[in-house]
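I wish you would study the pair of lines that follows with an eye to the fold:

===
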Amino acid sequence: MAEKTIKELADEIGVSKTAIHKKVTPDMRNKFFSKIGNKFVISEEGQEAIKSTFIVSFSETENQKPETDNSKTKGTKSENTQTEPITKETKSKTTITSEVSENNLSDTAIKIIENYQKQLEQKDKQLSELHKLLDQQQQLTLHSNQQNELLQLQIKANENEKKEQPDSNKQYVKKKWWQIWK
């Protein structure tokens, strides 16, 4: 067994990366985790420790299910499984419970995926509406720019007309400087 990343270990156990992050204590991180490049890798000892925490949690859920279902065997079954050491038998039981939990996970995963698909559809609708609004805004801006250009041309034309009008109305008479007061 070589060093593995958190993702590889999560896939092997059948849980998510966040589940591993939640189970790992800061002390375990210091002992078993190392960083190679941009990835955190877990030593072989750390992998075994993490697996054992998940095996214990799987066996606890396995013990709890029969207790709620069969009240008659409650005392005998829970006493036997809690005192027995972790062996290959208990490991196989945990793989069975992990398969069952994977089925439950797949149901919840399907629900989550459907929820995400609905959200994506809503986002697509919002995006199409935003594109329409953007197109409308661009058209309005173009229209207002054209009107501004027309107004500027009219202003220039009016100024040119004003300059020409005083010249045509005035007749310049040459007067000498002494005739100014007359």
About this structure: The longest helix spans residues 88-169. Strands lie at 4-5, 33-36, 39-42.
